[in-house]
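Lecture 7 notes. Example A: sequence first, then its structure tokens.
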Amino acid sequence: MFKDQVVWITGASSGIGEAVAMEMAGEGAKLVLSARREDELNRVAAAAMVAGAAETLVLPLDVTDLDSLGGKVADVVKQYGRIDMLLNNAGISQRALVKDMEMVAYRKIFEVNFFGQVALTRAVMDVMLKQKSGHITVTSSVSGKIGAAERAGYTATKHAVMGWFDSLRVELHQHNINVTTIVPGYINTPISYAALKGDGEPFEKVSKENAAGMDVTKCAKVIMKGFHKGKREINAGEGIEMWGSTLKFLMPKLLFKLTEKRCPKWDIE
């Protein structure tokens, strides 16, 4: 399905982005690998070529640098002539209670998780409209369906992502452009290490939930299976959190009680 397809993955230097890149490479895709860390992208690109990628283009990118995105899109088109799939996978998480979150941290999370994804999608969408085909995907989260303690800002961005891309799917259907939202639960990736504390600084710890989460390669295979089946929404996870949206619909009181039990006690002076 993806042989010689041009697949652009952001957040490709680690975690889900890297794992999906390896799966795409195994199918012979032409990869565009983007993230801020060029050295890590070069490592992933080398591994992707060994895994079977037709070509790789390392394209360092900060999704919050909105003025640079148009030029990056032009670079991809210059190299490959088209863009068949965009996987918006750049993202940052949070580990802080609402009472400890400063506005600078909220703004940073929104710039990366929402505005950066929207801006790049808008730029790539114009290419896909001209070529009259394409597939836009985004990594959301179970947090885009339910709320949890110490994740208020992250949860808000993922709810926004779900809503925006669901609306985009409706609008682009008539133009032969598919839109898929990926909804992972806890995955064993380093996402919590770079998560923001209340002051906007990195958390720099691996959370026990992520450490016990679904293997990232297994997650990538679930995502690829969803792509092959043409799913508009792909759930990827194996923990109890994957039942969250179902419980919210069928038994909301039970869901609220379960999430409240997991909330740390506030120390109020």
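Example B, a different protein, same format:
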Amino acid sequence: MQAVVSRSFAGKSTVGQAEAAVLDRLHSLAQTHVMLLEKDWEGADIAEGRKEMSPFLGRVAMEGPTVMLSAKAAQNFALAVHELATNAAKYGTLSNATGRVHIHWSVSKPNGHQLFVFRWQEHGGPPVTQPKQKGFGSAVLEQVMADYFETPPAIDFVATGVRYELSGSLDGITGAIERS
């Protein structure tokens, strides 16, 4: 919680902006905690991320198989999706009336190991440029999510929309292998 609060002030020019960022992030975490409590902290299906995207119904497509995340991974995935959605709403594809987001995840079994791939793709919004400054969202998307996989997350700021991809062993997010 301290990290969420302290990092939420980075790059904000007013206390009001920082307060709004903190409250949004805490609300996202609270929603995930309620869901996990209802499931005795045994984890959650990645599709529960739909709750984060509910303000944008009709503009977001989510698809993928059932993947039961560990409780820790569920919290961090919810926060990552929240950060992607917030940035898309402020600066990206969800900041206009025509933009769309496609979220897709898959599980395959190359070489006998279960490979998980998560993709966020924006399109139809205003042209995107790479931010000049990194904040809390970047830390979540690049550092926190990197703890789960062997391959670093990829985030691309292409003119047609932000692309974000995670890939690695399914065990890293399901709790079969605990990572610190």
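Note on Example B: The chain has one domain: 2-174. The two ends are 17 Å apart (CA to CA).
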